[in-house]
Amino acid sequence: MNPLTIAMPGNEQLSAALSDRLGCEMGRLDTRRFPDGETYLRFDSDPASRTVVIACTLAHPDDKFLPLVLAAAAARDLGASKVGLVAPYLAYMRQDRRFNSGEAITSRHVARLLSDAFDWLVTVDPHLHRYRALGEIYAIPTRAAHAAPLISQWIAANLASPFIIGPDSESEQWVAAVASGAAAPYCVLEKVRHGDRNVQIALKDLDAWKGRTAVLVDDIVSSGRTMIEAVRLLTSRGFVSPVCIAVHGVFADGSDALLVGAGARVVTTNSVPHATNAIDVGGLLASAVSELLAATS
Ligand code: R5P
Fold first, then answer.
1. The domain at 148-279 falls in which architecture?
2. Residues in the chain where the model's pLDDT stays below 70
């Protein structure tokens, strides 16, 4: 039977886009909170004997996580043959080691919980830094689509004479790929993180690229401190109106407005719905889902 896509709250556009591209039915899930904050769920569309594809991007994940795994469990209970997750932004990837004694390595714990709840997972550019692949922590088939070619296309179509900058060494994997696709030079800065909202970036000699459009590229803008500090340094060296491109605009702490206030133009993919979305990852997601549907049917 045709797969059924289901949107967790806030993911209706994503679910509709997947349904359109995959030619499958968009189902309905009623969900609300009981007065005590517990979650009520009811499938309006029958998942019995079908693959259910649940769409749920995981920015600000803690409120979303329990309803999500409950929806997956309910789909199975109602007879779904398989339950897949499309999470364009996959949360909890950055705590990938025990930085201080006693800390939880939450990337592993979340991976185990999602692997228990779902049969497969599709995402876009997960934060793979100390892990080389999702398979190191996920026990289910996964596909990680890459937004770099789309970001390169956007840069080539919209910016004159770009010069790509990664704010830290972790961004090099994205920056190198984006720069290569946009046929632009790149460099990577050095960042030291002193705390959740305290980063220090050392600026290199960028005089060789004066007159070019400075384009900062990173996987995530969360607190925004990384991008804000990089923008501040770039503008102090005469690079006016740098462009900040992130795959995932999580924008904690109102960092979207702070970045604009710092003089930046902000562009993101639609992995997390936001006014800055200018790059559509819907096609990447649908292709990855098609592959997994074929591989797991
Ligand atoms: C970390 O290395 C990532 O690539 C990002 O640079 C980082 O997560 C951004 O976080 P924030 O916006 O809180 O500085």
1. 3-Layer(aba) Sandwich (3.40)
2. none
List the 243-249 sheet strands across, edge first. Answer: 186-188, 162-166, 213-221, 243-249, 265-269, 277-279
Strand order in the sheet with 25-26: 25-26, 4-7, 51-55, 82-86, 120-124, 142-145
For ligand 1, atom 8, which residue shows the shortest CA distance?
220
Ligand 1 near 213 CB (within 6 A) = no
Q: pTM, whole model, 2 decimals? A: 0.96
Class of domain 4-146+281-296: alpha beta
Instruction: Map out the domains of the chain as residue ranges.
Output: 4-146+281-296, 148-279
CA 127 to centroid of ligand 1, rounded, Å: 10
Look up residue 7 and give its two tokens.
């949107």
The yes-or-no answer to whether 4-146+281-296 and 148-279 have a common fold is: yes
Residue of 185, 160, 170, 183 whose CA lies nearest to 241:
160
Q: pLDDT at position 297, please?
A: 79
DSSP state of 8: P
Tokens encoding 4:
């059924």
Q: What is the pLDDT of residue 5?
A: 98
Distance CA(7)–CA(52), nearest Å, equals 10
Q: Which atom of ligand 1 is nearest the CA belonging to 199?
A: 14
Helices (H), 29-105: 62-77
Residue 171 CA: nearest ligand 1 atom is 4
Q: Reduce the DSSP state of residue 249 to 3 states and report it.
A: strand
Contact 211, 185 (CB under 8 A): no
Pocket test for ligand 1, best of 190, 219, 266 (most atoms within 8 A of CB): 219
